[in-house]
Amino acid sequence: MTKIKTYKMMRYFGYILLSAISFITFSSCSLLYKQEKEPSHVSTLSIPANSYGTYLAGRIAHYRQDFDAAANFYMKTIQKDTKNKALLNKTYLILASQGYIEKAAYYAQIAAEQGDKNDFIAILIAANEIKQKNYDTALKVIRSNKSELYKKLITPFVEAWIYTGLNQYENALASLDPIKNQNGMEALFHFHSGMINDYFNKTDEAQKHYESIINNKNFELSIRTLEIICNFYIRNGRKEDAVKLSGKYANITPNVSILQNIHNNIIKSTPKISPLISSPQIGLSEAMFNIAAIIKYNSDILDFSHIFIRMAIFENPQNDLARILLANILEMREMYKDAIKVYDEIQISSPSYYVAQYKKAENLRNLNDYKGAELLLKSLILDYPNDYQTKLDLGDTLRLQEKYKEALKYYNQVITDYSNVSKKLWQVYYAAGITYERLGNWKEAEKNLVTALSISPNNLLVLNYLGYTWLNQGKKPEDAFLFIVKAYNQAPYNSSIIDSLGWAFYQFGMYDDAISYLEKASENDPSNAVISAHLGDAYWQNNRKNEATFQWNHALSQKDVAGELNIKDIKKKIANGMPPHTIIPHDQEKINKIISKIKVAK
Fold it and tell me: Cβ distance 405 to 439 under 8 Å?
C-alpha cells in the first residue's frame, strides 16, 4: 500500500538529491547562517566609512538572527557601494530567506553582472520572472545555468513549468525527461507529469501518472500529493475514489490532523471545485516545496531548503503546507518567534489551521511562555475536544508550571477516555508518573512509570527516571542500576543520565568511579545545580573537601531546573561538612556483572 508522509516527498528521490546537492557550490548560503560571528570589526568587506555603522548594524542583526533588520541594513549599505561582491551576495541571500524574492532577484542580477558565479542566481531570477509571467525571459535565464547537477535535478522542474506558462505542452513534458529514468526520481516525474497533463486537460494521461504513484508500493505519498490527486478525482466525477483514497490516511493518527480535515472537506465537496494546479506558478511552487522538504534533513544545507520554501510560498501564497514546512525550518534554527509569525498567517478556514495552532503552542513553550501555551491549548481543546494529543501537551504545560493536580486531570483523561490510544503511549504514563512523584504519591508514580516501561521497554527516559528514583529510595538497587546502565549505553553523552550513573556508583560506595562520571556530567552541563551537588558529595566522601565545598557553593549559584536541590541541606554541608555516607545494601557480585555491560563512550 502507498505510504504517506506529512512533509517529506519520496525517500529515494531525497537520497539522490541530497547526495548531489552536497557537491553544489553553495558556500555563500552556509556563510549566511552558520558562519556569521558576533561582529567586533569589519574584516573581509571593504565598506565606505559613511556606511560602516549601517553595515555593522546589519551584522549585529544578522548574528542575532533578526534577518529582516539585517536585510534592511545591508540594502542601505549596498546602495552606496553596489560593486561590493561579498555584500551583494549576503544581501540577495538573506532577502530570499525572508521571502523578498523580487528584491533578492534584483540584487542577484547586480551580483551576476559584478561576476558572482553562484549557480543559484539563475534559479532565483527565473523564479521571479515566472511569477511576473515573463516566461521567455525566465527560460533564457534558467538556460544560462551551466551546472550539470542543477540541470539534472532542479532545472527540469523549472523549465517544465516555464513551458507550461508558454502553453507548450510537449516541451513542458519533455523538460522532465532528464529525471524520468533516474533511480529514485520516478515518483516526482509522475507527480509533475500528472499535474502538467491535468493543467492542459489531458485527463487520461494525468490519471495514468497519478495512479502510477498510488499503485506503486515503493513510493511515498505526501499530503500535498494526496490533496492534488483527490482534487483531480472530484473534478472528473470520481468523488468516491477521492473519498476512499483520503480515507486510507485520515485515521493514521487518532487525533485531529491535516489529513482528517482534508478528508472531511473531500466528503463535503462537489464536482465544481476549482483545480488546485490552476497556474504555472502554482506548479513551480510544488516543485520548490518538494525540493525544500527533502533537503531540510541535511543541516549543512538547511539554508538552501529555507530559501526554496520561501520561493514556494512566493509562487503560491495559498500554499499553507509550505508555511508549515517553513515554520518547521525556523524551529530547527531555534527561531521560535519567527515560526509563530508564520503559523499566525494560516487562516482558520485552512485544513492546516489546527496543526499550525498546536505547533504555535509548542513554540510558546520553547520560549518559556507557559501561560500563553496553556491558554492556547485550552482554547484548542474547546474546539477539538476529541484530540488526545492536545490534552497530553496541556498536561505537560501545566506540569512545567508546577500545576500538578490540574496536569494529572488531563493525563488521566487521556488514559481513561482514549484507552486504545493510551496503550501505545508511553509518554502519558511517563508524564503521569513524574507528576504523581512530585505530589508525593510514589505508589501511583511507580505504577505509571512501570506501565510506561512495559509499553516502551528500552526507553532511556523511563529507564533513567525509574532507576534513579529507586536508588534514591534505596529500593531494588540491582534493577535500578541495570536500568541506568541501559539508558547510559543508549545515550552516553546525556548529562542527566551520566549523572545518574555517577550517582549510582556513589550510592554503592564506589567513589572513584562516581567522581569519574560525575565530573564528565559536570563538564557537559556545568550549570546544572543537581550535578554540582552530587559531585560535591562524591568529592567529600573521597576526602577532597575543598573541591566539595566549591561544588556545593557552585550548586547554590545555579538554577535548580529539576526542583530536586535541598538548599538548606547544601548550606549545612558547606558549614559543617558531611557525615560518612551510608552505602545502599546491594549484591556486589550482581553490580559487578552489570558494570561489565557499560559501553565505553566513543
Answer: yes
Residue 491 is given by DSSP the state -
27-117: CATH, from 1.25.40, 2.60.40, 3.30.40, 1.10.3470:
1.25.40
Q: How far is CA 350 from the centre of its chain?
A: 21
In this model, does residue 66 exceed pLDDT 80?
Answer: no
Residues 6+ apart with CB under 8 A from 271: 234, 235, 236, 237, 239
Amino acid at position 256, single letter: V
375's grid cell: 491558554
Percent of the chain with pLDDT over 70: 87
With respect to CATH, is domain 460-595 assigned 3.90.1150.10?
A: no
Select, from the ranges 12-16, 91-95, 371-375, the one with the highest average predicted confidence (pLDDT): 371-375
User: What are the residue boundaries of the structural domains of the chain, listed by start?
Assistant: 27-117, 460-595
- Tell me the pLDDT band of 253, cut-offs 50, 70 and 90: low
Please check whether the two domains, 27-117 and 460-595, share a CATH topology: yes
- Does the pLDDT of residue 266 top 80, yes or no? yes
The residue count of the chain comes to 602
| Secondary structure (DSSP) of 222-243 | EHHHHHHHHHHHHHTT-HHHHH
Query: Which of 59, 122, 121, 69 lies closest to 98, judged by CA?
Result: 69
C-alpha angle with apex 537: 532 to 543, nearest 5 degrees? 125
With cell 546602495, the residue in question is 79
pLDDT at 153: 81
How many CB atoms are closer than 10 A to CB 130?
Answer: 29
The CA-atom distances, in angstroms, between 164 and each of 193, 195, 273 are: 11, 10, 22
Structure confidence by residue, pLDDT tens digits, 339-363: 999 999 999 999 999 999 999 999 9
